[in-house]
Amino acid sequence: EADIYQTPRYLVIGTGKKITLECSQTMGHDKMYWYQQDPGMELHLIHYSYGVNSTEKGDLSSESTVSRIRTEHFPLTLESARPSHTSQYLCASSGTTSGANVLTFGAGSRLTVL
Amino acid sequence: KNQVEQSPQSLIILEGKNCTLQCNYTVSPFSNLRWYKQDTGRGPVSLTIMTFSENTKSNGRYTATLDADTKQSSLHITASQLSDSASYICVVSDRGSTLGRLYFGRGTQLTVWP
After folding, report:
1. N or C terminus: which one in chain A shows less Cβ crowding within 10 Å?
2. For A105, which of B43, B99, B105 is closest by C-beta distance?
3. Of the candidates A41, A22, A32, A19, which has an alpha carbon nearest to the alpha carbon of residue A85?
4. What is the torsion angle, in degrees rounded to the nearest 10, for the CA atoms of residue B67, residue A41, residue A16 and residue A4?
């Protein structure tokens, strides 16, 4: 079944640790995105990719980095986590429905940095 | 400034009742408007998507309306069920680029009580 998967779903780590949030999709979508969401707030785009070897920063400044070596895989890395990075991170990919760019989201990765 | 405002911020209704959620936007040039449902701890799931020429679209018990002249949309939920408890997010896309930039509302948190 075509879907988008994020791991881990929950992560609690100490300050200064390096973490990688994994995101994989099986829909063959070229476009993939990372959003950050805090409780009661809107989603903010932090990274996006239009295809392999293409990555761009989003609207919200983030100390994280991303890579797109394979179409289906779009991992996000934090080299040195801090408490300010505590948030929910949502990965998405998009195809086209009726001419519109429709996002499919993963279940999210909730990161807590102590 | 392109914005998406949703009201109410939160809503509690009894099972079986109907409700209407509102979305006002200032995004221009307008491309399309989507409603997403986000269960607690999960990623958003698309309910409907409407372009400029569409003024109503249904998905089961969910009916979305769009008035592109007044830049307003509503999501009507009929005969609510406990499983409708979730955050409902309005997302507006502009036509400023091939991708279409997305503007997210903060969501309306709906709670359905038995």
Report:
1. N
2. B43
3. A19
4. -50
Cβ–Cβ of B51/A40 closer than 8 Å?
no
Residue type, B59: N
Q: What is the mean pLDDT of residues A72-80?
A: 96
* Measured distance CA(A9)–CA(A103) in Å, rounded: 19
Q: Residue B39 and residue A43: Cα distance in Å, rounded?
A: 14
Task: Say if the Cβ atoms of A42 and B106 lie within 8 Å.
Answer: yes
8 A C-beta contact, residue A23 and residue A32 = yes
Distance CA A52, CA A58 (A): 17
Q: Tens of pLDDT along A9-49?
A: 999 999 999 999 999 999 889 899 999 999 888 999 999 99
Contacts of residue B99, Cβ cutoff 8 Å, sequence gap at least 6: A31, A50, A101
Give which of B4, B25, B28 is closest to B100, Cα–Cα: B28
